[in-house]
Structure formats: C-alpha cells, structure tokens
Amino acid sequence: MSDMVEVIHDRLIQQQVDSIRFVQPEPSGNHSIRIGDYLVRGQHNMWVVLDAAGVSSALLQECFELARRDRRLGFVKKLPQSAALGAALSDAFTHCLSGNVDDFSSELATLIDLFITLIDGLIDEVPEVFEATREQLQCLLSLKSPLWEEVAYLPDFDEIEHPLNQVVMHLLLEAVNRMKRTPSWTHDPQLRSTIIHAIEQAFEAELRSQRFQKISQPTDLNMVESTLLRKSENAVWVTALASTCNYAMPNWFVLDEFESASRALGRYLGWIDDLADLFVDILDMRWNSVLLRINSSTSFATLNAPPSWPFAVATGISYDHISEDIVLTGRAYYEDVIVKLDRSGLRLPKMMEVVDDLTLSWLKCR
C-alpha cells in the first residue's frame, strides 16, 4: 500500500516541477552548490544565535538526546534546515531592498525560523509539553506585552521545566531584543507596530492549527484550509519583516505591497512543503493544504473508516483530473508570487533564484 502511494506521490511531484518550469525556466548556475551555501550559512547562523541567546551546549545536547529517544521530537533534527531557510529568504529580501546582505538580518531571520519550527513541532507533536508554557507565551506575544517595552524582559527560567520550552523562550527573547536595537524599531512606529502584530498573528495561527492536525472529520474544511494557509503566510511575513529592521527602506518601498508579496510567497512555499510531505501526512492521517485540495475534488478522502483513508486518498490522486487540479493549484500559487513580487518591486533575479532553489530542494530532495 505505502509503495503505491509513494509512486503516485513521486509522479505528482515531477508534474508539479514541470508545470513550474513551464512558467519560469530553471535558474542558471549550480543549484546544488547554492543549496549547500544556504545550509552552511544557516548552520553558522544557528550556532551563533543559540550561543547569543544563552542556550548552553548542555541544554542543546539534552534536547537532541530527548529527540533521539522520542520519535515525536523528530522536528528538533530539522533545526539546521529551518536555519538555512531563514537565512536564504532573509538574504533574498535584504538584497532586493538594499542591494546587500548582512549578518544581522540573516541571524535575526534564523532566530525567528528556529522559534517557529520549535513552536510548530511542540504544538503538533507534543502538545502536553507545549501546554506548560502556552499561557506565558500568549501573554508575551500579545500586543500589550511587556516584551515590547524598552527595558529587556527577563522571565523566570527556573519555572520552565522542559528543555525545549527553555530553548523556545531563549530564542524569543534574543529575537525581540535584537529587533528592539534596530533603527527601524526606534524610528518607524508603523513598522514596529506591524512587526508586533505580525508576530502575534503568526503565533495565534499556530495555536489555531492545533485543532486541525489529525483527520477527524472537522465540520468546516474551508476553515481548516484557511488556517493552514494563513500559518504558512504568517511565517514568511515575519521573516520578511525581520529583513527590514536594519535598513532605511528605499523610496519605492510600499509596506502593503511588500506584505502582499510576502504572503503570496508564504502560501506558495507552504503548498510546496505540504506537497513534499504528502506521503508522510497521508500515512499519519494528518491534514495539509494539498490533502484538503484532494478532499475537495473527491469524496474518497472522507470515508468514515480511518484504516481506509490512506488507500482512498491514493486512489483519488491516481485520477488524472485530480492530480491535474493539484498541479494547477501549485502553479497558480507560483504565478501569484511572480505577480505580487512584480508589483512590490521585489522580482529580482536573486529572489527568484532562492524561490526556485527552495522549490527544487523540497520537492526533489524530500
């Protein structure tokens, strides 16, 4: 059964790549070398920011040891890839906005992506661990939180028992304290307010998505789809905003257009990530945006008997009209990214190169 699903999945991925190449030819140069460069920069950033955030080697080692013993904590092993994603996107945004890349923006984006990866994993996989700090994090990330005040906020780490929750808190404080030292935070109230609101939105989207993880016949599948897409949008939007903190914006910069382009990119990357994870999510009976699209195209995915569900989905994907719908949806998201980047002034070779590199990396190296 699983072999059949994987074969169908591989075919679907190749069809998606081909459809995107029809819109935009593959970037010149060596894709593999660039991916290697993203990983090197991301991992360098990761160790720098973990050290700056006060995450000791002993605490980090304890987290990796927990992940080794508990397969639910496998998301901890994805931290280097998350760091690479943050660095790659930040470098693309800062290059488009200023013509340069800088370590500060790249490290800030890495901090944010590491934080989001851990929060996402804790909520999805070990909610009982996350619950211990849920209320504290909700208070800290609210619009009126003491975290945004000029004086550095220091929580009582002795009250945070689980090592992963401690790392999450260290990363959050380091990211916010870095942002508060930037010129944009001090001199641009609109941008500061936008960043605070975006961070709160991103966290709330993570919390809402917790209700829709497993296939349990939720009553409003449109709400599930909207929530999962919003989660992807918000993550990239916060990363994009982090790239603006250290610079005066160019004359052509329009915040609303910048947000529209960032959210379009988030939707697209979220779709590609879900397509890459489709095989795993089918077997785990976990909703993602691609599975929701399949569900809207066929009644097979909503069979009442859970053991039948993976087979039903695989059967649905095997139909040409359903696989074509999936591929065209991904292509439409990609075309929307191009349109929105054009409008915002961000459609430069560096940005498109990173977008296409991430697409190929996730789909072909899953």
Spell out the key features of this protein.
366 residues, mainly alpha, Farnesyl Diphosphate Synthase, 73% helix, globular
Protein described:
The structure is a single chain. This protein is mainly alpha-helical and 366 residues long. It has one domain: Orthogonal Bundle (Farnesyl Diphosphate Synthase), CATH 1.10.600.10. The chain has 16 helices and no strands. The protein has helices at 2-23, 31-52, 57-69, 79-98, 103-125, 127-140, 163-179, 183-187, 189-209, 221-242, 255-276, 278-284, 289-297, 309-318, 320-344, 349-364. Helix 2 (31-52) crosses helix 4 and helix 4 packs antiparallel against helix 5. It is globular and about 60 Å long.
Shape: globular
What's the assembly state of these chains?
single chain
Q: Structural class per helix/strand content? A: mainly alpha
Overall structural domain count: 1
Helix content: over 70%
Number of strands: 0
Work out the helix count: 16
Q: What is the level-2 CATH architecture name?
A: Orthogonal Bundle
Main sheet makeup = none
Terminal Cα span: 20 Å
CATH superfamily membership, which one? Farnesyl Diphosphate Synthase
**CATH T-level fold name:** Farnesyl Diphosphate Synthase
The level-1 CATH class: Mainly Alpha
What is the percentage of strand-forming residues? under 5%
Determine the mean pLDDT.
85
Radius of gyration: 20 Å
- Run of helices and strands: HHHHHHHHHHHHHHHH
Unreliable spans are 301-305
